[in-house]
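Supplementary Methods, section 5.1.

A reviewer requested that the exact input to the structure prediction be made available. We therefore reproduce it here, unchanged from the version used in the analyses.
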Amino acid sequence: MAEAGTATLYRMVLPDHTCPFGVRARQMLEEAGYSVDDRILGSRDEVDAFKAEQGVATTPQIFIDGERIGGSDELERLLAKG
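The structure derived from this sequence is encoded token-by-token as follows.
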């Protein structure tokens, strides 16, 4: 399988909570052959600042080759298209 490209994944990993959607998004990207730049948002302040900066309501957020794809549901739909 050819290298699919580079994906940047911003996901929440707090001391008391790891977002399961972020974990799933990473698995989907790796299974699809992407090189994943895993950017951990490790505090509520980091999560809130990221969401405000990007104008999004949720994490994770996935970027493929610099283009924002969206969250794990959008990623799943994109990968299902092939």
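The chain has one domain: 5-76. These observations are discussed further in the main text.
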